[in-house]
Amino acid sequence: MTDGPAETVEHVSGSGIPVRGNDIDTDQIIPARFMKVVTFDGLGQFSFFDQRFDDDDNEKDHPMNEDRFRDASVMVVNANFGCGSSREHAPQALVRWGIDAIVGESFAEIFAGNCLALGVPTVTADAETVETIQDWVDDNPDGDVDVDVAAETVTYGDTTVDVTVDDAQRKALVEGVWDTTALMKANAEAVAETAASLPYVDTA
Amino acid sequence: MSKGTLYDKVWDRHTVTELPTGQTQLFVGLHLIHEVTSPQAFGMLEERDMAVAYPELTHATVDHIVPTADQSRPYADDAAERMMAELEENVHDAGIEFSDPTSGNQGIVHVIGPEQGLTQPGKTIVCGDSHTSTHGAFGALAFGIGTSQIRDVLATGTIAMEKKDVRKIEVTGELPDGVGAKDVILEIIRRLGTDGGVGYVYEYAGEAIENLDMEGRMSICNMSIEGGARAGYVNPDETTFEWLRDTEYFQNNPETFDELLPYWESVASDDDAEYDDVVTIDGSELEPVVTWGTTPGQGVGVTEPIPAPEDLPADKADTARRAQEHMRVEPGETMDGYPIDVAFLGSCTNARLPDLRRAARVVEGREVHPDVRAMVVPGSQRVARAAEAEGLREVFEAAGFDWRNAGCSMCLGMNEDQLEGDEACASSSNRNFVGRQGSKDGRTVLMNPRMVAAAAVEGEVTDVREVENTEVVVDD
């Protein structure tokens, strides 16, 4: 999905999975030892690996180990999710596990940017709203959570709540311009002019 | 909205255009790449049949997976060898300069950029590594990016960004003896939170910052990201210019130095610059800070009691409880006396020459505690050579430290340097996340390099000010 022209992502709908806790860092989302690879293929199985498995590979208590959440596509998290390392391996692993959108109280910037580059919305709401959605998902693992990027709402069951989508993220997703490579490549001439105007760029 | 700050000026100078998303297309003056986050980006370029737009503004090194003991090829670890081989092929094909281990210039990407004169005031600098904020110490606008953004930069020489707010953090007064740059940044993160900087670029200012050497400023900017700020910077001044003038690059190119100096001077924030937020911290009141938990914000003065989770804000209490369980610390205790198994002196935060000098002064004439394995991993081959030339290696080795080759090493445990089981590590690195140093049960205590040296000698977290006041008795 990262390799072609971008599609529009107006809304994402699917069952949810709550992953609770503030300050969940990218080392937890994908431990560094699984990054000794030259592609992102196959990373999904290593999502939250050390939270999900003990030393003998026995499953620990973690929502991603529960069958009832196995088909989830909307992850519901708390504050400062994705802090730490810039590794795109983190959202790549989540996407490969099956996640298409993340609802949370707040996200680390690099992580949110990496999600956007994959067409994955990261929408935010206050702590209480997020916890209510997490509880609902816990009680309704098969219920659909609909993330409407354009309207900035999340609907679960009969409830619709307002959420915040960063302006640029919303435009990029809704208009299908989240893959910025081609967009920026088209401005090559203006780029060269900017380069030439900088005293430290040797354009001779 | 900020006005007249370094951030505003550098942003404006590098703006290409506004994108349909409302983001700014920003020109990238220096793109640093390494073996972990770039191979997939080169793969994406190939799939789209695109070439590297500005290879001459791109520079590569190998740091994350490089072994720090035996570096003979092929590397013992097949995965590491594959990543290295892939990088070699990519930089060769694209014509990108590569500070590889045979060049004598290899090292952690955030150490080699400055020392090779690549990092300069007023540049935009990106790298697929969150600690790219380090380069802000020179008055550059520097931040970490993900792999898809690396693809963007490789293909276009630009990046899509939204402009952030600027928070000035003024550290006033003179730092007391025994307190260094690392303590300042740990204190800032402790006060403002690990997410306090989200949406902000940090400008570090004030007497305590101005009095720091460049390496100290790098330590501070390095950990901006641990406070949630993707970029942090210090306005360039005489200290900056002197440091750059002394680099081998500008020694060999003095005319380039003279040409660029006016630009460098021009990008510093104006006296009447406007900020979105200003925070003041009294530097003269600080003491060495160490972490008690599993985020860099969970810090405490070495002689202060560890806080009780219930005394913390509600949103921090739960994380604190879990962290204290993991670290096996109790509220009310101090970190002074916390037993350690490993001492790690290294990382892009604190593995530069002055860091090693300061630590060596503590170690000299003393011995590493018998229950501790201690290692020094210089930030770069140049740092290692300079340290060896002034006898620091001998000091460390005589004390029982292992002296390694340059790399990221035990900061993130991607090579053979890892914690085992539930070992506790006194670490000069930047992250104490669970599992960060290679073992999910490992316990990391972040501190400044002199504190690491003191912990290595005493076998427990120790107030370095006490150690330094104890005379060394040399056995004959």
Automatic annotation (TrEMBL), chain A:
Presence of keyword Transport: no
InterPro entries, per the entry: 3-IsopropMal_deHydase_ssu, Aconitase/3IPM_dehydase_swvl, AconitaseA/IPMdHydase_ssu_swvl, IPMI_Swivel, LeuD
Region (Disordered): 1-20
GO biological process terms held by the UniProt record: L-leucine biosynthetic process
Domain of life the protein comes from: Archaea
Oligomer and partners: Heterodimer of LeuC and LeuD.
Purpose of the protein: Catalyzes the isomerization between 2-isopropylmalate and 3-isopropylmalate, via the formation of 2-isopropylmaleate.
Alphabetical UniProt keywords: Amino-acid biosynthesis, Branched-chain amino acid biosynthesis, Leucine biosynthesis, Lyase
GO cellular component, one term: 3-isopropylmalate dehydratase complex
Top-level EC class: lyase
Keyword Lyase carried by entry: yes
EC assignment: 4.2.1.33
Annotated family: Belongs to the LeuD family. LeuD type 2 subfamily.
UniProt GO MF annotations: 3-isopropylmalate dehydratase activity
Catalysed reactions listed for this entry: (2R,3S)-3-isopropylmalate = (2S)-2-isopropylmalate
Coiled coil: none
Recorded metabolic or biological pathway in which this protein acts: Amino-acid biosynthesis; L-leucine biosynthesis; L-leucine from 3-methyl-2-oxobutanoate: step 2/4
UniProt protein name: 3-isopropylmalate dehydratase
Domain Aconitase A/isopropylmalate dehydratase small subunit swivel intervals: 8-124
Organism this protein belongs to: Haloarchaeobius iranensis
Any matching Pfam family: Aconitase_C
UniProtKB/TrEMBL annotation, chain B:
Subunit note: Heterodimer of LeuC and LeuD.
Name of the protein in question: 3-isopropylmalate dehydratase large subunit
Organism: Haloarchaeobius iranensis
GO biological process: L-leucine biosynthetic process
Gene symbol of the encoding locus: leuC
Role noted for this protein: Catalyzes the isomerization between 2-isopropylmalate and 3-isopropylmalate, via the formation of 2-isopropylmaleate.
The EC number(s) this enzyme carries: 4.2.1.33
Magnesium listed as a keyword: no
Taxonomic path: Archaea, Methanobacteriati, Methanobacteriota, Stenosarchaea group, Halobacteria
Reaction it catalyzes: (2R,3S)-3-isopropylmalate = (2S)-2-isopropylmalate
Cofactor names: [4Fe-4S] cluster
Pathway annotation from the record: Amino-acid biosynthesis; L-leucine biosynthesis; L-leucine from 3-methyl-2-oxobutanoate: step 2/4
Region (Disordered): 292-314
InterPro entries: 3-IsopropMal_deHydase_lsu (IPR004430), Acnase/IPM_dHydase_lsu_aba_1/3 (IPR015931), Acoase/IPM_deHydtase_lsu_aba (IPR001030), Aconitase_4Fe-4S_BS (IPR018136), Aconitase_4Fe-4S_dom (IPR036008), IPM_dehydratase_rel_enz (IPR050067), IPMI_cat (IPR033941)
Top-level taxon of the source organism: Archaea
Keywords of the record: 4Fe-4S, Amino-acid biosynthesis, Branched-chain amino acid biosynthesis, Iron, Iron-sulfur, Leucine biosynthesis, Lyase, Metal-binding
GO molecular function: 3-isopropylmalate dehydratase activity; 4 iron, 4 sulfur cluster binding; metal ion binding
EC supergroup of this enzyme: lyase
Residues holding [4Fe-4S] cluster: C348, C408, C411
SUPFAM superfamilies xrefs: Aconitase iron-sulfur domain (SSF53732)
